[in-house]
Amino acid sequence: MKDLALITGGAGFIGRHLASALLARGYRVRVLDSLIEQVHGAGAVPRGLDPAVDFVAGDVRDAGAVARALAGATHVVHLAAEVGVGQSMYAVERYVSVNDCGTATLFQALIEAPVKRVVVASSMSIYGEGLYRTHGGATIEDAVRKPRKPGEPWDPLDAEGRPMRPVPTPETKRPALASVYALTKYMQERLTLTLAPAYWTSAASPGASVPRSAASRSPATSTPRRSLRSGRR
Ligand SMILES: NC(=O)c1ccc[n+]([C@@H]2O[C@H](COP(=O)([O-])OP(=O)(O)OC[C@H]3O[C@@H](n4cnc5c(N)ncnc54)[C@H](O)[C@@H]3O)[C@@H](O)[C@H]2O)c1
Q1: How far, in whole angstroms, is CA 219 from its chain's centroid?
Q2: Which of 4, 99, 163, 214 could form a disulfide with 155 if both were Cys (CB 3.0 to 4.6 A apart)?
């Protein structure tokens, strides 16, 4: 029997492409998606979703729907989320509910129905403005973009008021959680990286201080193998 990958939020932009890619690699694919209006309008299953996908309509916060979607699954890719930095700043309850309670509901179910591997999509938003370099060559991790008048430079300024230069941002950069969306995505990461090693493996995303995804291997037991690591960032 082929492995069965469950993609939460799999009717969305990334999920539809991922579903096709997994099918092409020989997986069976199931999607759990509530088809939110903001993304899908009237709520019809999107045309871009491969017809070979087993589509399950449901909310990732609904424990019953999650348990049904998990039946027989060997892999999970968790993409279901409210997506957007700006909107998260006024739709606070909705973002926290879907992104964090939804992830908690999924992991609660995974304790009872473990899989070989779980992948969670994080977001670059957890790095805030990313890394900047000053004229003097100093690297700045906590750049803040202040309101600008028209014609003024857009990039953040250094202590002397000179624009700084954006530079590539590695995943080891300290988080800079400047929006509700960033907070909720970081929570998804940490929940994954806390529970995976506690339940299923001693080395989930080894060495990753600020990982974008996490993986867990086949559980040997449904009780924690080791106490939770704490304080690692
Ligand atoms: N697109 C990007 O550039 C980007 C960048 C970084 C991270 N991500 C992350 O990748 C994931 C997928 O992003 P996307 O661009 O495909 O977003 P999308 O909005 O196109 O897809 C999200 C899907 O989740 C579904 N959904 C929303 N709430 C749900 C709920 N409560 N229960 C079940 N399904 C629900 C939506 O109906 C939608 O189909 C998200 O977790 C997002 O945070 C996306």
Answers
A1: 22
A2: 163
* Ligand 1 within 6 A of CB of 61: yes
Q: Tens of pLDDT along 186-226? A: 999 999 989 988 887 532 332 233 333 333 333 322 333 33
Q: Closest Cα to residue 176, out of 148, 209, 142?
A: 142
Nearest Cα residue to atom 25 of ligand 1: 9
Options 1.10.275.10, 3.40.190.10, 3.40.50.720, 3.30.70.20; CATH for 4-126+174-199 is 3.40.50.720
- What pLDDT was estimated at residue 198? 84
Instruction: Check residue 180 and report its DSSP letter.
Output: H
The CB of 80 under 6 Å from ligand 1? The reply is: yes
**Helix segments in the chain, DSSP class H:** 13-24, 37-40, 63-70, 85-88, 92-95, 102-112, 180-199
Tokens of 134: 């000053």
Residue spans in the chain of domains classed CATH 3.40.50.720: 4-126+174-199
- Torsion on CA atoms 210, 224, 8, 17, rounded to nearest 10: 60
Q: Give me ligand 1 centre to Cα 165, in Å.
A: 31
pLDDT of residue 224: 32
The rounded Å distance from CA 168 to ligand 1 centre is: 25
Kindly state if the Cβ of 143 falls inside 6 Å of ligand 1.
no
Amino acid at 86: G
Ligand 1 atom closest to 59 (CA)? 32
Residue nearest to atom 9 of ligand 1 (CA): 121
